[in-house]
Amino acid sequence: MWPLVLWLFVGSWCLGSAQLLLRKVKSVEFTVCNETVVIPCFVSNVEAQSTKEMYVKWKLNKTYIFNYDGNRNNSIVESNFSSAKISVSELLKGDASLKMDKRDAVVGNYTCEVTELIREGKTVIELKYRVASWFSPNEKILIVIFPILAILLFWGKFGILTLKYKSTRTSKKIILLLITGLMLTIIVIVGAILFIPGEYPVKNASGLGLIVISTIILIFLQYNVFMTAFGMTSFTIAILITQVLGYVLAVVGLCLCIMACEPVHGPLLISGLGIIALAELLGLVYMKFVASNQRTIQPPRNN
Ligand SMILES: *[C@@H]1O[C@H](CO)[C@@H](O)[C@H](O)[C@H]1NC(C)=O
Ligand SMILES: *[C@@H]1O[C@H](CO)[C@@H](O)[C@H](O)[C@H]1NC(C)=O
Ligand SMILES: *[C@@H]1O[C@H](CO)[C@@H](O)[C@H](O)[C@H]1NC(C)=O
Ligand SMILES: *[C@@H]1O[C@H](CO)[C@@H](O)[C@H](O)[C@H]1NC(C)=O
Ligand SMILES: *[C@@H]1O[C@H](CO)[C@@H](O)[C@H](O)[C@H]1NC(C)=O
């Protein structure tokens, strides 16, 4: 009785050591941005000295799609996965990852089976597809909020202008500002409607383009509001320069975001729009300050 138990125990211990240890990866995902898709499979205890001793098989769901026979140094690939391959040179380092073009990649559970002489191991990795969102919801909100805030601030200045500086000389300019301001408001609202919903890259990108590019109108409006009200001072020049810088940042950010598959330059774009809104705010504060000073003709110097 005892020898049998001992034999079973030692036997199972030996079998246990005859396992290849595969790193557990539950799932990997790919997006429209991945040119090639890599399904990882790493063996941590390879002892083989030559790939001749190794055999790699990959299964999708229940069917074998890829076989590598190290002894014959030969890969057999299922016809639907013609681009699938492993790096034979990495095999002895334990890397049996399957690489394929995106066009061949289908979602599902992939099984990696590695054999090294009598040792073997396998692991299942789920390949998932993720719809790449261009910007996160928070980024989208900021991208829309800043221009809208800037436009509201413009209308604030426009209000001060019509109340405090109205004269027959300026009424033509005020009408021009009114029309341009309305135009800008409509453009940005249309841009926001195109930009916010859904995952349609072309529609979203055109909305974003409308919003960002049209903010140049704000600089024109701000300049004309200042000129109509009290002309240029060093403050208004500084405010306008800030706004131009914000615009340049936003446009550079826009170009980088449109060129990259996944926009990593969102923060640049957003800070540009933020600076534009800040310049509008400074303009409004300054205008309010000047307007209230002008009522009391000359501000008292000492109490
Ligand atoms: C897709 O690309 C991303 C970013 O380059 C990468 O982290 C990910 O592993 C890739 N997915 C697959 C399945 O290859
Ligand atoms: C296996 O074949 C490839 C070409 O198909 C060759 O580059 C590689 O050196 C071969 N490896 C071995 C171990 O023979
Ligand atoms: C290969 O692709 C064809 C057509 O897309 C499909 O009908 C067939 O089931 C696929 N075979 C495997 C093994 O996935
Ligand atoms: C594998 O299974 C998944 C989920 O059941 C399915 O979506 C996918 O089409 C299957 N792939 C193949 C090639 O049969
Ligand atoms: C893959 O397997 C996991 C766990 O067994 C299961 O939850 C998942 O639905 C499977 N995925 C596919 C695409 O078949």
From TrEMBL:
Gene3D superfamilies membership: Immunoglobulins
Ranges where the Ig-like domain occurs: 34-132
Gene Ontology biological-process entries: ATP export; cellular response to interleukin-12; positive regulation of cell population proliferation; positive regulation of inflammatory response; positive regulation of phagocytosis; positive regulation of T cell activation; regulation of interleukin-10 production; regulation of interleukin-12 production
Subcellular location: Cell membrane
One Pfam family in the UniProt entry: V-set_CD47
Keyword Mitochondrion: no
Signal peptide residue numbers: 1-18
GO molecular function terms noted in the UniProt entry: cell-cell adhesion mediator activity; fibrinogen binding; thrombospondin receptor activity
Gene Ontology CC entries for this record: cell surface; extracellular exosome; plasma membrane
Record's keyword annotation contains Kinase: no
Record text on subunit structure and interactions: Monomer. Interacts with THBS1 (via the C-terminal domain). Interacts with SIRPA. Interacts with FAS/CD95; interaction may be enhanced by functional activation. Interacts with SIRPG, UBQLN1 and UBQLN2. May interact with fibrinogen.
UniProt protein name: Leukocyte surface antigen CD47
Source species taxonomy: Eukaryota, Metazoa, Chordata, Craniata, Vertebrata
